[in-house]
């Protein structure tokens, strides 16, 4: 959802996170990942303008950061 919200393709996000496009696809399917991989993707998304929202009773989520 975060990737689509900012208009990044799988290859673009993979490049920004320094992982393979296959890794992004596996992450999006919910497969288990190393924590360092998840953190790299999260940092890339945050740099691109995504804000991660912590669990607050309604579930964790994302939104676009105000510019």
Task: Please characterize this protein's 3D structure.
This protein has 67 residues and is mainly alpha-helical. The chain has one domain (2-64): 434 Repressor (Amino-terminal Domain). Helix content is 49%, strand content 12%. The chain contains 4 helices and 2 strands; from the N terminus they run H-H-H-H-E-E. Strands 1-2 form a two-stranded antiparallel ribbon. Strand 1 (50-53) and strand 2 (61-64) form a beta hairpin. Helix 2 packs across helix 3 (21-28) and helix 2 (10-17) packs across helix 4 (35-47). 19% of the residues are buried. The mean pLDDT is 88. It comes from Mesorhizobium kowhaii. InterPro entries: Cro/C1-type_HTH (IPR001387), Lambda_DNA-bd_dom_sf (IPR010982). It holds the Pfam family HTH_31.
How would you summarize this macromolecular structure in one to three sentences?
One of its GO terms (molecular function) is DNA binding. The protein has one domain: 434 Repressor (Amino-terminal Domain) (Orthogonal Bundle). The protein is built from four helices and two strands, in the order ααααββ.
Look at the structure and give the CATH class.
Answer: Mainly Alpha
CATH architecture: Orthogonal Bundle
Number of helices: 4
- Alpha-beta content class: mainly alpha
CATH superfamily: lambda repressor-like DNA-binding domains
Which fold does the CATH topology refer to? 434 Repressor (Amino-terminal Domain)
The total beta strand count reads 2
Instruction: Estimate the mean pLDDT confidence.
Output: 88
Termini gap: 19 Å
In terms of quaternary structure, the protein is single chain
Shape: globular
Order of helices and strands: HHHHEE
Q: How would you write the strand order of the largest sheet?
A: 1-2
Gyration radius, rounded? 12 Å
* Major β-sheet profile: 2 strands, antiparallel
Strand content: 5-15%
Domain unit count:
1
Domain HTH cro/C1-type: 2-52
GO molecular function: DNA binding
Protein name: Transcriptional regulator
InterPro entries: Cro/C1-type_HTH (IPR001387), Lambda_DNA-bd_dom_sf (IPR010982)
């Amino acid at each position: 959802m975060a990737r689509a919200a900012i208009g990044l393709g799988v290859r673009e996000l993979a490049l920004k996170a320094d992982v393979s496009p296959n890794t992004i696809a596996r992450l999006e399917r919910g497969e288990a990942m190393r924590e360092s991989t998840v953190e790299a993707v999260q940092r890339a998304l945050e740099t691109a303008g995504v804000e991660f929202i912590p669990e607050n009773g309604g579930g964790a989520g994302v939104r676009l950061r105000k510019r």
